[in-house]
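Researcher: I'd like a structural prediction for the single chain below. Treat it as a standalone chain; there are no partners to consider.
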Amino acid sequence: MSGEAVLDREAFIRSHTRLLPVPHAPEIALHVAEEATELWQKTEDELAVIGLPPPFWAFAWAGGQALARYLLDNPQIVAGRRMLDFASGSGLVAIAAAKAGAGPVEACDIDAFAAAAIGINAAANGVTVALRCDDLIGRDEGWDVICAGDVCYEREMAERVIAWLEGLSARGATVLIGDPGRSYLPRERLEALATYEVPVTRALEDAEIKRSSVWRLAR
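Model: Treating it as a single chain, here is the predicted structure.
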């Protein structure tokens, strides 16, 4: 990514989102969009880039909100521990971990727009988050805690991610998954830790409130 491209992404994010409190974790504010389809079209039209991934970074998804709430309420889970927020999107869970005392905190997403959004959102919340704009599936860099929110909506991705996370859990890492009941969540391999009623954007979900849980991957 060139410096110019990053600046263009940051300018675009700032001009098409609003900094608002996260509904289920109001201690955190994110730059969020009000309408998904409109933002997606503006991304292609104004930046003249076709085939960009959906702007997942512009919303506080239910699974991420559940994880953020859980970490803020249970800071001992991450305090002083190296943490990775996988498929971070907006950076919500990484920011919550940093606020809960984790360190160092890394946020991974393969979308360069997400990386820009994570940087903007971390700065807005006064925390430090290291950005990883690459595919970390299959790697083990010694993280103590790995969080993944809303990653079980496609079969192939869910299978790859869960297989990788199982390996990390087996060697002793704490693996937490936030999920509102996506189709490919492997419940039989998970232990439920907490359940919340999470406000979400109706344009993205089938309801205005999603019952969302935090799960721990069993060792």
